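Morning. Coffee machine broken again, so started the prediction first thing and wrote up yesterday's gels while waiting. Chain of 217 residues, entered below exactly as on the submission form.
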Amino acid sequence: MINKPTAIAVILLTLVSSITSQALAAMNHNGMIMDSKGMIMNHNPDRLPKDCKKIAADIDITVHAGQEQAKKFTGKMFAFDQQEWNIAPCSRLNITFINDDDVRHQFMIHGLPGYLYPAGMFNIEVYGKGQKTASFIVGTKPKTYLVHCEVPQHMEMGMKAQIKVAGGDGDLASIPGLTESVTADIYPIEWGDKSIYFVLIALLIGLFLPRLILGRR
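Came back before lunch.
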């Protein structure tokens, strides 16, 4: 016969086990793995696309993301440290995504086979400074995949790249440093009396101020 303290202990252990199981289920469901640092969607290290008989190559890619990487691009605020990858068909890509900023960033891809990747998506998101690693496998067809951050405006601010499988099926627009922007960064000047006046003053200062300084020596 189970005594009262033992019965209470069994009940408590059962409750703790139930709560822990529910918490773990909430952290890994519907293709999403989440924790306090970030999220991985549709990690796939082993399921082959229908048109692949085996994994042709294991490719390890480390990607940095943040403001520091955008400094080489005029007018951009965020960027990846690489803007293009050329990949052989049936390759497994092992992505280590490193966020160098204090704001969240993503490494997101669309257009993958829906029977392997729900909604055709693969995504790594890191909520602040830190990193996560996940894998996905590409098929055989020549295709160019968009890689971007879907956090509002981060893609427009420069966080955009492309993956070409089997040479790709063309270049995507507005890839920083690679392709022309759909909308160019144009900053028009509205000329008026005041702006012309200030330009003339600046020219006069530029012409005569050095002579005045040199003349006093």
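The two ends are 108 Å apart (CA to CA). Going to sketch it on the whiteboard this afternoon.
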